[in-house]
Design brief:
- The chain has 211 residues and is an alpha+beta fold.
- It has one domain: Nucleoside Triphosphate Pyrophosphohydrolase, CATH 3.90.79.10.
- It is 21% helix and 28% strand.
- It has 4 helices and 11 strands, in the order βββββαβββαααβββ.
- Strand 2 and strand 3 form a beta hairpin.
- Helix 2 packs across helix 3.
- 33% of the residues are buried.
Length: 211
């Protein structure tokens, strides 16, 4: 596995929780891709600034699993397809074709926690993504490096898991290369840790010093 490395400070939606750990909610997210054998671009949507959780942040389309969607892998796939349609108006016909890429569990020391399964999917032909203007207010296609550069320049706001995914996705030149790598891969959960040093909270990944 090409594990992302490094540490970052906590961002919006990653506020420190000094009390007992909160049980994470099951969630799913879709990294929507375009470029085929020629390039690699991915879709990010901007959450409304009015949202109490991660307002104004650019994210991969996704959200919590609904109770009626059940449990296990099928539930995560169903939630991923539903959230992609609700947030970006893109309809995937077969949840089984989603390619599992990663699983991130929010640190135990963070107030709002999710156990999120990230899936890859190629943009279907003949569709154009669009936001609803309420939950999500903007969208854009980015190369991984382009999204990171826009964040560094203050043009968009990203949070830690998205940054680390973009760093990993940047290792691939095309959609085909990325999907070939991800298919059949055994995905292991990543649960970052929060280390508080004075008034600064740092997020560490497995393999980082001090994890």
């Amino acid at each position: 596995m090409r594990a992302p490395q490094g540490s970052e400070r906590a961002g919006p939606g990653e506020e420190y929780n000094p009390g007992p750990p909160v049980r994470p909610r099951q969630a799913a997210s879709v990294i929507l891709l375009r470029g085929g054998s020629q390039a690699l671009e991915l879709l990010l949507v901007r959450r409304t600034p009015k949202a109490r959780f991660m307002g104004g942040v650019w994210v991969f389309p996704g959200g919590a699993v609904d109770a009626q969607e059940g449990d296990g892998d099928d539930a995560h796939r169903a939630a991923a397809v539903r959230e992609l349609y609700e947030e970006a108006a893109v309809q995937l016909s077969d949840p089984g074709e989603l390619v599992k890429f990663s699983r991130w569990i929010t640190p135990a020391a963070v107030q709002i926690r999710f156990d999120t399964h990230f899936f890859l999917a190629a943009m279907p032909d003949g569709q154009d993504p669009k936001v609803d203007g309420e939950e999500c207010v903007d969208l854009g296609w980015f190369t991984p490096a382009g999204a990171l550069a826009a964040h560094a320049a203050g043009e968009i706001v990203l949070v830690f898991p998205t940054i680390k995914h973009l760093e990993q996705l940047g290792e691939f030149a095309t959609v085909e290369e990325l999907l070939a790598y991800a298919r059949g891969r055994n995905v292991q959960p990543i649960e970052p840790r929060v280390v508080v040093e004075g008034e600064v909270a740092r997020i560490l990944l497995p393999g980082d010093p001090g994890y």
